[in-house]
Amino acid sequence: MKYTVEVEIDKPLNKVVEVFRNTENYYDWMKGLENIEQLKGTPGEEGAETLLHFTIGKRKMKMKEVVLRSNLPVSYLVSYNVKGVYNEVDNKFESIDNNRTLYTTANYFRFSGLMKLFSVFGKKSFTKQSLKYANDFKKFVEEKYEQND
User: Fold this and answer.
1) pTM exceeding the 0.85 threshold for the entire prediction
2) 2-148 maps to which CATH number?
């Protein structure tokens, strides 16, 4: 399953990328993120491996993140692995003008086991969740720099 999500952020490219690079900010815009556990490498650099601990509703989940390419703002490609799901997300940032940035995520999913059903029935819910994270990131960036401008 593949799809792309885009949002315009009302802040300059350098500010948006600055917020995105700081993994401590993930707690503020990734709903359900409880803990970030660095397993290998330097956060944000190619080859870095991280275990993300989420609580979504009553469900606890651990997701392994691997940085496959780190070339911000052009591309920040990461993979996520959780039981039955492999996901790659290519985050891209592009300046629209001096005060606006286009944030695009190209998403690719591969499912196994029972999770294969989601590839048929779940595209809409996965797209909706990706758009929610992108909009939550947008809101966080705009509010963070509203206070500091």
Assistant:
1) yes
2) 3.30.530.20
